[in-house]
Amino acid sequence: MHPISEFFWFLFSPSAVVLALLVAALWLWRRPGSIAARRFLLASAIAYTAAGVYVVPAAAGLLLTFGYHPFEARDVPRGATAVVVLGSGDQTIRGWDAKPLSVLDPVGAARVLETWRVFRLIDPAWVISSGGSPDPTSPDEPSGIVMRDSLIALGVPAARIKLESVSRNTHDEAVLLSPMLRSLNVEHLVIVTSDVHMPRSLGIFRARGWDAIPAIAPDPDATLTLAERWSPTLAGLSLSGQVVHELLGIPYYWARGWWTARSRP
After folding, report:
1. What is the pLDDT of residues 100-129, one digit of tens each?
2. What CA–CA distance (Å, rounded) separates 155 from 117?
3. pTM of the full predicted structure?
4. How far is CA 235 from the centre of its chain?
5. Which domains are delineated in the chain?
């Protein structure tokens, strides 16, 4: 993972919250009368409280998700269709012996379930499970492999699944998948990913010549209780990170020529 991305995700982690409070405490200990230290503490408390309250990033995320609807069979014209599920992440659990077990994280699981639903609706020619490891030195299984295995367990025939497991980000996925899709004579492309990730994903594939059809996976934390939605939680902090990452990522990708709002001729 790029150092800037690592720093960004750290900002929206519990570790960053603890670090901000520790910095404020040490600052006030050394300079009890410091107005700047008090302002830093107050700003950190307000910022992380707002970021942790689920309804705040959920409302901001409407800027990204407006106009999308759950996928329906009529969304895809006739013709050879491929469904691409974009990788999220997984976790590797280790027991007492050396044999590890890689499992999907909640976001990845939601994408796999949506892919299974889309598969049953339209019976596509191909399902492509895409996603490598952001850190090539990590011992964890690439998310593409973990998602593929989960799709097979759900009932998608292994012979209908293609694998891409070396990409490190969404741009890599579009670059690597484009020649694969053309070699498979794909006419229509359905992309499965999280709702907030969909605008950036569609624009990236659009820049590679694909007018993809969106199939948004539901947010796995959308079922939080009313009290949980209005209280600071790890789910809210995580969603804040996702939303801000996408809002900053789209202009960054556009500036690099990796994202476009319109199809290239």
Report:
1. 888 899 999 999 999 999 999 999 999 999
2. 11
3. 0.91
4. 14
5. 3-52 (no CATH), 71-220 (3.40.50.620)
